[in-house]
Amino acid sequence: MDCEKASWFVYGRMRACGENKEGSCLESATLIVTGDFVELQRGWLVNVDGQKVVPKNRPNEEITITGRSSKFVLKFDGATLMMYVVVGTTQDAKGNELEERVVLYWDGYVSLTIQTPMSTRTCGMCGNNDGKASNDMRTRRKGMTTDPFVFGESWKIGRRCEVGVPAESVGEVCGERYSSVRQECEDIFSSGKLAQCGVDKEPYVAGCVYDECKGQFVPDLPPKCVVAKAYATVCEKGSWERGDDLPIFWDVEGWEGEVGCPTEGERFQPTLDTGCPQPTLEEELRGDY
Length: 289
What we know:
The chain has helices spanning 148-154, 170-174, 178-189, 192-196, 202-214, 223-237, 255-259, 264-273, 281-286, and strands spanning 8-17, 23-33, 36-40, 46-48, 51-53, 63-66, 71-76, 81-91, 97-106, 112-115. By secondary structure, it is α+β, with helices and mostly antiparallel strands. The strands form 2 sheets. Strands 1-2-3-4-5 form a 5-stranded antiparallel beta sheet, with no helix packed on it. A 5-stranded antiparallel beta sheet has the order 6-7-8-9-10, covered by helices on one side. The longest helix has 15 residues, at 223-237. The two termini are 33 Å apart.
């Protein structure tokens, strides 16, 4: 969230998942901007004040949602739903005016990538946007912690949220499988186009190992491939370091075939099936849903 002006924030709703429902997965994400609410749901469905928008019926087409004070732009490319809203303006070195945007990339299932203006100081689960990972785990009361459980619990919103349980260590989850699963995950991120991407791989490898051992997701969407897709999104949508004038992009198109993961087309229906039933374009236009 914007911790300077509180003009926007992103709220993620979690639910139990995995074997015996012992894990926790992102179910939906809501972008709130000066009183306007737009929720991204499973299967790339979008909820705007109770009205459903169905981006999968309009692939590669920009859809504009006009709220009371902001305009949200959606675009679905067949695998990832992008949504952005302009939250301010700035100037480049030549004096040209540039839009400052908050951008969300939603895989339609459990993975959300958020891009914010580099000038905005944020707080919450994504850190403070100062380019220093070492001070990101700051709690709601401004204290620092190294405990992910304490950090996550401090940012929980809503009375309905259940009391959390500290996660098992990766060693406890994997047991004797740890070394082989770790090698399998490292092989994915060190192969083909994913290997060329300069974004730090270790957090994704660690997530891959944990989710593979925990058995977090549905059979047609293997955990290692869900995590790899999240990494590929960061690579292809752009990443930057403090001091860089422009973000750096990496071409990772076709990474799935290089590491044996489901392709965009193969992921489509299983991802769609994780959400609510959706109308065809004809049914949507008739209002039959």
